[in-house]
Design goal:
Blueprint (H helix, E strand, L loop, with lengths): L4 E3 L2 E4 L4 E6 L9 E7 L6 E6 L6 E3 L7 E6 L4 E6 L8 E8 L18 E2 L3 E6 L1
Parallel strand pairs: 2-11
Antiparallel strand pairs: 1-3, 3-8, 4-5, 4-9, 5-6, 7-8, 9-10, 9-11
Amino acid sequence: QVQPVESGGGLVQAGGSLRLSCTASERTFSSYAVGWFHQAPGKEREFVAAVGWTGGNTYYADSVKGRFIISRDNAKNTVYLQMNNLKPEDTAVYYCAADSRTPFYSGGYFQGASRYDSWGQGTQVTVSS
């Protein structure tokens, strides 16, 4: 396992943007699929976006398509989530998760939380109306 660390959360007005970052000290992080999930108070944790280890394949929840962009820079061992046109319903704790059990694997189902075995502590995103 690795220990992902998220950063970049904060308070923003509706229509604004934030960029979340997820990094880990282990160099092997660059070989893992990474997903972003969010959890609002009283709700289940939900899939937001995911990226394969090469960065060549990306996946998004319908609610964020066209607004969020997931990317990675393996030279910096970092995965990004660019969030544009934020809405109050995007308010949640955002978690980064890595799949360390299948390194260098670009297939499978990216949207399920069970794929990921290494989770960060989360970063709060609050969007005011």
